[in-house]
């Protein structure tokens, strides 16, 4: 019999639903060395968490995350709460000997992230594993992109351009939300979506950023307070609140291998819903990806003769592609949530193998340091700002 | 408490896995009036069906589908076996008072399909429901296409062009499979994939085909027998077998409203993996869909001024789009299997409401009659051949 | 000094303007062995032809094409009149020892085309050359497509799908024009645009069609007469006229090498302006072209490993591509009229070399026979109809 | 009779050929108030300029540009020489009372450009006109983009992202050229191609940049000297030379209306040949353009209901679109050189009307100041640098 892995999930909103689906679904498509049990779901509101547990498939509930950590039948704590609570929960869980999967961004500040990375490193020496949820790494086309770079098909990387484009607050009448308040969200587009493209470009290239030059912008500084609380995209009333985070972040960067990076994260790109766009130009080849066509990777092979050279539209749905063989026959595309399932597969596999999964908390900390450098550069006339902790 | 709906599934290969996922997943995202229970999975090989049940999440197993039909805790029989067994199983289930979901094509012959449609009509009078699994109808972009036609946005339909393009046997060295034998598969590309585009174009336009002119072709008539049996895409050996079905079907058609249709179904379109492509031109607007970019519908609105008119790339991932609101925020694309989940949602909803779901067995029969007319036209020098049973 | 080639052009509407541009432009970009002189422009209306000659750059004018043929300083007669006059003019010119470039379709009937091909064959024995203006052959992407097939990159051709989609009479209120009258235009979409895709697919594959099964349709049989005469797209008045040609033609075909063809030509594809779309699937590779993106050829190389296989978007603007080196640096796209310039280059080069240019009048006749078979099949319940004259 | 406009063209390389084609072609498609005469072509090498004049259609030649300026039959001097000679020639021509069309970038330094703008302003008071050749403004899709912004269809502009991507020196073995030497070219990718996207984004938005933060990079600092001199893309030998300009420029910017700009110009984007890509997001709509598909403008109309909203692929080949009506019927795309013809049309029209054409030398100076700010920011740790001369 496959041994079990008891899961305790903290938070049941968007990310909680996505993680629940992944825990439920992974064992039906992949041969996992441990069988995840949806043991307990935690949330502060007793009625709501009970309802969510029923809907999402969890056996038990808790209204205090500390109760989850104490349970013997919980082997892994999955943290899906807002960023300002990550450090406390994750560190406590690691110290209690629980493996931890923590949503991104790892934390709202570098200091918190440092504490978390330290706790993770200590825990690892006792065989306790941790991972930060940069889920998009597990989109098959991204996996293929990283492989092509690692295989040398791009040669020396020269250009990285990456955008994360959304438009859900392009309308000035869109109401306030906790995501627009600095004390809860840490930052705006920068940390929420910019973090993803920082992680993805570093992941694909196998390089890290060494410095940045940045500008942040808040286009709409005052918004109506929502008449129905807590609902993203609710309706605004007559009263208004202050937006205290960035609406958009743009920055230049340089990678360890010398490539130039150009980054943009915004929630004001009207018409772009979840447009994660990454292009990489190397001396031997180029890549392009757009999440709005997520099963496709474009690849230019510089070794082709000019007569027949061109960007290839690789439909990343072949058995030869990362993760794909476990799903459907060739050509049957995957969706957004499959990345979460793949994340669970890789995490469970690493735990069973006694290995540290990636992205680690240290990786999450490094991304946090990039975001921090972006904010410091923006506050200092866009001056070039090295990433701290890079040696 | 939500009442339950006991499911018995017959068959556990590709379609069995897709249906299992749908039964498991639907209640976690949609508010279903009945809670599906994965009661029993049936297959002829005891060891294999037991293994499959464990993997796919079924509580019990059976090696004879008749045992499934007899069970009191089974309310619905889901038929995922090859086409030559559909009629016997589905009719028996309906007569036993079980709702039936039957994979497409409804049957291998018109006679079988007629018997099934008759049985379904009788059963309906007793409140027993039936549905044929033309799953692609439940892709959100297809749902939106149908809605735009129904809303009059296309005006009078004039042209329908539809292709289902695959390439998995383009290589003459690809081995034999039951799908290439007429006695098991009924037909080749025509019934396997052509049936889908016949159904989809009729579904979107709200019209049916009245006649066809057709040509069938078998490019590779002899193929190596697989050394490992039963595996699609296995390796061929030295012995060969006869391909007795069509490799490709091309046909012209005319719809009840006067539109011209041009259809193509092939497994020899090198580079196209699951290319379901549909274009519709009307007097007021046009549509284009390609499953290789399945979250997108292209729409041309003829009422726009020429200066700014153009095909719009609608990313069908907004809450306003069919089925989408139950899943993720705007822009987070769905995948192939979501159609199966939507199918289950619509079926369960209809059963609870005491309504006949669509596509009905009568709809499945009508598609069968189109396929039959295609074969008769191809056998008669492509002569125009009316669809039987159209009055 | 480069010897001259005196040109006499008959007709000065759309095609006349395109040909004039080509004669003027070719020597400035290509090294031609003969220098074209824009000697004389002919048209029936003296005032209009004089104005056109001034605008289009012609030295002299004539109101009777016979005067053009008699002139000693005219070496080549370029026929840009409606199809019902082609035979008389072209045959007379050839008999007078003038080289002839004749717009497509070669003629309105097979009989006329036969007479023209015969005259051309006779003239060729005296060193007098002739060419029919299937200009799209000279789009660089089409030239590359033909080369890839000839180089064996597609292997054995299995599928050809070709559409020529326009929408300029999709509106039933669009007025009558000579193009909608059978006695002037010969046929409708079939001969006007269907002829192009018949020629192009035969040209690219190096094969000819052996038979067809077809349906023709006239969606709008009565249209307002234009209040301003002679203007395509003019405004219609209260009186109406009968449309006596097809609005759309759809047909299946088979090529000499066994490939299945699916063809469509229509002026009712709302939103498609000049959509010439050609796809070819072979055993070793596939191609796709769309004139709405005319500088691009898509190519799928079946020999690539599955991991990185995909349709390549070849931007056909490199010096290595047909005709391109004479124009601009890489990446600087060409437009519609460049095909006419390339046509002139190839024609002049062949004349100077004492060779017969292609497409010949015999090629034009063969296309005419395909169109004829399409009409006969459509008139005979779409029955499969062999192309006459194919041995 | 239409009065003439005598043209003297200085330089006969790539730009000289493009300008010659425009002067020759414009009167055949547009009704010009003045008829351009290709009077004299100037170049230093007598044999070469004579050959070029024959090929490009010029009546006379000169080996000293000063002779061109002195001629009474020259009304307009067209400057197509390298940037370091623009100021001297253009100023002398203006002072001699000749209208001037000067290729971009206006000059190699801000000081030169200031002198030129001053000379142009003085000349304008005497009715002498001047224009700088930012030709891409005259691509119809760009004209439409500007119109949509001016019509308010985008609302308030928030984001501008613009890239000019080429790859002709991505290979380190590509040889030296004058374009890689600072004293001749002024700068590298920045001035050669970055200037275009600076101008285009300002032109489309109707706003100017107020400041930038920038980084420049030279990836390959030493290259083989060409064995054949003077040929772009020639073959390199054993000796090497120093690259003294930037290979790539990336910068952030801010527009007068508050929009954030992100710019990139590079010759190292492998697979991109002439990729001018511009996206603009406003509060009411968005635009996207890519020169690799130059006849298309993508437009997202934010006022559409979410159900049917999407980027429209406007094929900018309708009579309603800028410049298009003079060419071919709908759907027949234009190419690279048409922009030059449109430029001539607008210039001649302005001269005849006694109006100052745009872009003016002052506009060219303003772009020069942006480039200068980019270089100063890059030299000062990417610090935010205001554009000089903006008040």
Automatic annotation (TrEMBL), chains A, B, C, D:
Superkingdom of this protein's organism: Bacteria
Domain Gfo/Idh/MocA-like oxidoreductase N-terminal per the UniProt entry, residue ranges: 6-124
One Pfam family of this chain: GFO_IDH_MocA
Domain GFO/IDH/MocA-like oxidoreductase: 145-287
Coiled-coil intervals, chain numbering: none
Keywords attached to this entry: Oxidoreductase
Regions that span the bilayer: none
Stored InterPro entries: Gfo/Idh/MocA-like_OxRdtase_N (IPR000683), Gfo/Idh/MocA_oxidrdct_glycsds (IPR050463), GFO_IDH_MocA-like_dom (IPR055170), NAD(P)-bd_dom_sf (IPR036291)
Name of the protein: Gfo/Idh/MocA family oxidoreductase
């Amino acid at each position: 019999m496959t041994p079990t892995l008891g899961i305790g999930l903290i938070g049941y909103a968007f990310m909680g639903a996505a993680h629940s689906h992944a825990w439920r679904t992974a064992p039906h498509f992949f041969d996992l060395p441990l069988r995840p049990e949806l043991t307990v779901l935690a949330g502060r509101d007793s009625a709501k968490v009970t309802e969510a547990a029923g809907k999402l498939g969890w056996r038990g509930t808790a209204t205090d995350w500390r109760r989850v950590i104490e349970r013997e039948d919980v082997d892994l704590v999955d943290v899906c709460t807002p960023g300002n609570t990550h450090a406390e929960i994750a560190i406590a869980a690691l110290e209690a000997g629980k493996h931890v999967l923590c949503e991104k961004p790892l934390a709202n500040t570098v200091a918190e992230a440092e504490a978390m990375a330290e706790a993770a490193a200590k825990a690892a020496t006792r065989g306790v594993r941790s991972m930060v949820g940069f889920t998009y790494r597990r989109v098959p086309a991204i996996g293929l992109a990283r492989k092509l770079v690692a295989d040398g098909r791009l040669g020396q990387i020269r250009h990285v351009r990456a955008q994360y484009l959304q438009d859900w607050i392009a309308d000035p009448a869109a109401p306030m939300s906790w995501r627009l308040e600095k004390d809860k969200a840490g930052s705006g587009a920068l940390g929420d979506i910019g973090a993803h493209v920082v992680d993805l470009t570093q992941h694909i290239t196998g390089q890290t950023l060494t410095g940045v030059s940045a500008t942040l912008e808040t286009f709409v500084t005052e918004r109506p307070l929502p008449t129905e609380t807590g609902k993203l995209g609710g309706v605004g009333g007559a009263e208004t609140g202050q937006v205290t985070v960035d609406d958009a972040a743009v920055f230049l960067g340089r990678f360890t291998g010398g490539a130039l990076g150009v980054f943009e994260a915004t929630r004001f790109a009207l018409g772009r819903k979840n447009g994660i766009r990454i292009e990489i130009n190397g001396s031997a080849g180029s890549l392009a990806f757009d999440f709005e066509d997520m099963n496709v990777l474009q690849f230019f092979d510089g070794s082709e003769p000019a007569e027949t050279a061109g960007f290839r539209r690789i439909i990343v749905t072949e058995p030869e592609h990362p993760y794909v063989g476990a799903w459907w026959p060739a050509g049957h595309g995957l969706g957004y949530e499959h990345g979460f399932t793949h994340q669970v597969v890789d995490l469970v596999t690493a735990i069973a193998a006694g290995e540290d999964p990636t992205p680690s908390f240290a990786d999450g900390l490094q991304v946090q340091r990039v975001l921090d450098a972006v904010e410091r550069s923006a506050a200092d006339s866009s001056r070039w700002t090295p990433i701290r902790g890079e040696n």
